[in-house]
Amino acid sequence: MKFFLDTANLEEIREVASWGVLDGVTTNPSLCSKENIKFEDNIREICALVGGPVSAECVSLRSEEIVPEARALAKIASNVAVKIPVGLEGLKATKALAAEGISVNMTLVFSASQALLAAKAGAKFVSPFIGRLDDVSEDGMALIEEIVQVFENYRFGTEIIVASVRHPRHVVEAALLGADIATVPYAVMEKLVRHPLTDAGIERFLSDWKKVRK
Ligand code: G3P
After folding, report:
1. Is residue 213 exposed (0-12), middle (13-18) or buried (19+ Cβ within 10 Å)?
2. Which residues are catalytic?
3. How far is CA 199 from CA 27, 59, 192, 196, 205, in A?
4. Which one of 7, 39, 126, 189 is least enclosed by Cβ atoms within 10 Å?
């Protein structure tokens, strides 16, 4: 499974890149609003730090406006994937952009039917938001299971980015279902590697090491 970092923060990206497990980055307007840097400069710097895809979101709502906005974002760097909210206008824009070879990450996906249409329109990625479904008493992971099955049935090349990840179990369950990618906030990324028994084990080994004859 590929790991993307769900952030626009350059320090977090540098840090996780140094762990050797970073395959890409996803941003959105909410994440970019937290950074004290111009949007385009931020995306450019992120793209320079990460070899893999970096999602930058379009804010236009009509396909005639989404397409030029997406083209401009794609010009920032060769690894930009333009994020477009799913919908009729987004589908039209995706079809046109995919024909030009621009990678589209169709976002705000909350149903398998939306994912199916996004794949048919030529999206390279779909981003189902599982945490937000869990927040309204729905089953986010059940949606991932459905999309994995649908994409396998028809051998779509579209990759599933499990988004709105809230805790390590989300990542493990996404991996068990065979999702292509999880985009993970920094705080969850840190939690993935920690275990109290590992910490206790290290402490005991270090303490016993002092008693070993040297
Ligand atoms: O990648 C989409 C993700 O950032 C949404 O997460 O936590 O705002 O639901 P959240």
Report:
1. exposed
2. 83
3. 33, 45, 14, 5, 10
4. 39
Can you spell out the DSSP letters for 133-171? HHHTT--HHHHHHHHHHHHHHTT--PEEEEBS--SHHHH
Report the separation in Å between the CA atom of 135 and the middle of ligand 1, taken as the mean of its atom positions. Answer: 12
Ligand 1 atom at shortest distance from the alpha carbon of 55: 1
Tokens of residue 36, six digits: 């004290």
Centroid of ligand 1 to alpha carbon of 203 (angstroms): 36
Q: How far apart are CA 83 and CA 105, in angstroms?
A: 5
> Taking each helix axis from N to C terminus, what angle separates 10-18 and 186-193, rounded to the nearest 10 degrees?
20
For residue 183, which atom of ligand 1 is closest to its CA?
1
Pocket of ligand 1 (CB under 6 A): 6, 26, 28, 127, 129, 131-132, 163-164, 183
- Burial grade of 162 (CB within 10 A; 0-12, 13-18, 19 or more): buried
Chain mean pLDDT for the chain:
98
Digit-coded pLDDT (tens) for 154-200: 999 999 999 999 999 999 999 999 999 999 999 999 999 999 999 99
